[in-house]
């Protein structure tokens, strides 16, 4: 099967290179990826996938399904294709999407032997308000048995963790007054905000060192001679586990309640963006992927990266067993993410070869789990026993 999948990857490689290059040349921001979504769905339709466009009324989302017509597992490949403002595909989502779509096509060509379905989810706007969160809320991943994707980077690394993230906003409502002649008549919303920030700074000592709480003052008042009647703070609260992060959001919110109580302001707490869950990598799937990659290419994957942000793939990993490893596009050079240099790397012959290796390894990982019920049981048991 390894040789068969490798050959399929070689065969579809040029079409995927073209897809990646076209998307590179036409960078589109989140929820505006009209060309990219059209090119992905065109290619998937050409390869016999049943394509649903405009998923959840998001014009650049899609769900492309290839059904073997036989019982078996349902495998999801997660495709991304959004760019960044001014630096284009500095996160490499042009080649990321081509790799996922390519893995889906490769698996569809051999799925008859193992049964089941393969679905390529076209998920817009990973860089901003990721559609995977909306897909997850709508239950689109509920009947998926496995989810896989791989992200371009400097170096091959196993799928690790990412931080759960809650974007929390505090608004304080006070009362204006002349700040010199009648300050006693005012209720100071800026003081409420500052007390909140000081409270959060004191809280930092007593939270897990792996958590991050960082915020800014969006509105801090209008003029020095008016007691501020309205202020607005926005925080990101992040932790390695969603459950702990929810506790931490409570504690941060209590700092805001304290600020409001101390000053006499009223407080409004809300979420200003979509929350991301932490990524839970399935280690059994990680092992199958690492082995497949080694057998295909001789590449030894490295341990997961220690530094981490937040990913919308996190949401998927709370619903079904998931991996999100990284594949090398820089040929050993140190190139940071979110740079023009990384975008350029995705066009090299080296990166094209790694796309072929990676999509083959993703497809082979899925195939090996689909054909082996014992292995799938291990994947599933690990998923069920991992704390969220
Ligand atoms: Zn990015
Ligand atoms: Zn990215």
What do you see in this structure?
The protein has about 400 residues and is of the alpha/beta class. The chain has two domains: about 1-160 and about 275-385, 3-Layer(aba) Sandwich (Aminopeptidase), CATH 3.40.630.10; about 165-270, Alpha-Beta Plaits, CATH 3.30.70.360. It has helices at about 1-25, 35-45, 95-110, 130-135, 190-205, 240-265, 285-295, 315, 340-345, 350-370, 375-385; strands at about 50-55, 60-65, 75-80, 115-120, 145-150, 150-155, 165-175, 210-220, 230-240, 265-270, 320-325, 325-330. The chain has a six-stranded mixed sheet. Helix 1 (about 1-25) crosses helix 10 (about 350-370) and helix 5 packs antiparallel against helix 6 (about 240-265). The longest helix has 24 residues, at about 1-25. It starts with a helix and ends with a helix. The model has no long low-confidence stretch (mean pLDDT about 95). It binds zinc ion (2 copies). The site of one zinc ion has 3 residues, from loops.
Number of strands: 12
Give the oligomeric state.
Answer: single chain
Helix fraction, binned, reads 40-55%
Bound molecules: zinc ion
The CATH topology annotation of the largest domain reads as: Aminopeptidase
Shape: elongated
Using only C-alpha atoms, the radius of gyration works out to: 24 Å
Structural class given helices, strands, pairing? Answer: alpha/beta
Mean pLDDT: 97
Q: How many DSSP H or I helices?
A: 11
SSE ordering: HHEEEHEHEEEHEEHEHHEEHHH
Strand content: 15-25%
For CATH, the homologous superfamily of the largest domain is named as: Zn peptidases
CATH class of the largest domain: Alpha Beta
Distance between the termini: 35 Å
